[in-house]
Amino acid sequence: MAPSVAIIGAGFGGLCMGIQLQKAGITSYTIFEKAGGVGGTWRANTYPGAACDVPSHLYSYSFEQRHDWTRRFPAQREILAYLEGCADKYGLRPHLRLNTEVTAAAFDESVNRWRLTTSDGGEELFDVVVSGVGQLNRPRLPDIPGVDAYEGTAFHSARWNHGHELTGRRVAVIGNGSSAAQIIPRVAPVVDHLDVYQRTPSWVIPKVNGEYGRSERLAFRYVPFLQAANRERIYRVIEGLVYPVLVGGWSRRMVTRRAQEHLRQQVGDPGLRAKLTPAYPIGCKRIVIDSDFYPALTRPNVELVTDPIARLVPKGVETADGVTREADTLIYATGFHTTDFLAPIEITGRAGRRLHEIWKDGAEAYLGVAVPHFPNLFLLYGPNTNLGHNSIILMIEAQVRYIMGCLPLLSARGPMEVRQAALDGWRRALDRAMARTVWQASCHSWYKNAAGRVTNNWPGPTTLYRRITRAPRPDAYRFG
Ligand code: N01
Q: Are 343 and 416 in contact (CB under 8 A)?
């Protein structure tokens, strides 16, 4: 009999898992989703300008290619529609349990099954749990004094307040990562004044976007192999050009120069340019890919503030130099809690082991997928599987294929638990590869935990990860 599978999250990861189960004829699965619909981060992030900086033809499942993407880089709405379409096409809807947050999962050794507790107080048993909760789903508010004192309207980029009209307002944006870089160009033209509070400048490279014309879309549809060849070309160019940037390879200087040139071309004022010039190597933090960000900062109604924020006051933001800038609206583009994976779900494995206790010095998992003491628990987009250079969908598909390969093993031999020795070997290999990466340089990034360990990113090429996850090695696990 097929195992029963609980999937947590209905984003790219959870849906991919559901689709592959469905394709394999396994229908004994439930996808738990705390939101009211599918889409994960692409449902949550509805801020103006929300879009992906990975090309459409690559930022989609390999097995579900669309010929009719309207733009080279997809906007949030189009990605969400794509995922909704996948849920319909592959018959996932009857398996979706929406508005249902999983609060705890405990391995019950008396029956060798996982007991899931949900926010509605329900409890259910499953043979297998697959987490697809992602790394960027819990907004992080800054630890600035006075956050509660502020009297204007404040919201996080991933919790956009669409009921709040921005036209004619005095607005402050805190942060200048990928989200802020997309928000600022859309907000700046409509507001009266915009202050952008920058703690650390980002490296920015241009995004050569544009619409796919009707003829191009028809060609993708009807010319044999064109779509597949185009996807493969995009993949190879990104992998071949951008991955070396992260490991000090041939293209590091070239991409750095391109970013410097982009800044020079778009920002004429040397003072502003100096403020926007990073002092850390490119790639250490997530590179911003955008062509509209710099021009927005040069608008007369926009001020880039680099004095550190001292505190929020009822009417605005006070910087360390004692200046208060009034703002009736405050937008936190301050990122996410990225290093406390799977929080706040309480996960308990064999012998009462608590996942978050085991991970208190940094999350880790064998292949980013399996953790000792937690049999039949598999992670999608888990520790050390984020990318700094390519489409995360590639990694998710590799992980789903791997987990699908585990199902016959655990069905035949009982619950599978990764061996500590396998995880230790994995950690040693990761550490060796990580030492070569630019993420180790001195910059603050969401890839690192409080102790400075890079817990989020995969340090190798995607080709290697896809190869080593092609099929599970039974000797890495104990069964029963
Ligand atoms: O978040 P971030 P994000 N005082 O963590 C600043 C993906 N994504 O939502 O650099 C002042 O990158 C912080 O400053 P610093 C993508 O993977 C993709 O923008 O820490 N500032 C930083 O500038 C991305 O990397 C797309 O000094 C404070 C910003 O807030 C990830 O999501 C689009 C502060 C946070 O940047 C997250 O991006 C959007 C404080 N106390 C997102 N605390 C695309 O595909 C934080 N900051 C295009």
A: no
With the most atoms of ligand 1 within 8 angstroms of its CB, the residue from 159, 198, 199 to mutate is 199
Alpha carbon of 50 to ligand 1 centroid (Å): 13
Residue 291 CA to chain centroid, in angstroms? Answer: 21
Which stretch of DSSP H or E encloses residue 303?
Answer: strand 302-305
Which pLDDT tens digit goes with each residue over 304-362?
999 999 999 999 999 999 999 999 999 999 999 999 999 999 999 999 999 999 999 99
- In this structure, the answer to whether residues 53 and 71 fall within a common structural domain is yes
- What integer is the mean pLDDT of 173-185? 98
The range of the structural domain enclosing residue 88 comes to: 5-138+337-479
Q: Are residues 32 and 80 in the same domain?
A: yes
pLDDT of residue 49: 98
Q: Which atom of ligand 1 is nearest to the CA of 181?
A: 19
Give the whole-number percent of the chain exceeding pLDDT 90: 99
CATH (domain of 375): 3.50.50.60
Mutate to test the pocket of ligand 1, among 58, 136, 284 (most ligand atoms within 8 A of CB): 136
d(CA 136, CA 152): 26
The reply to whether 272 and 370 lie within a common domain is no
Tokens describing residue 361:
């010095």
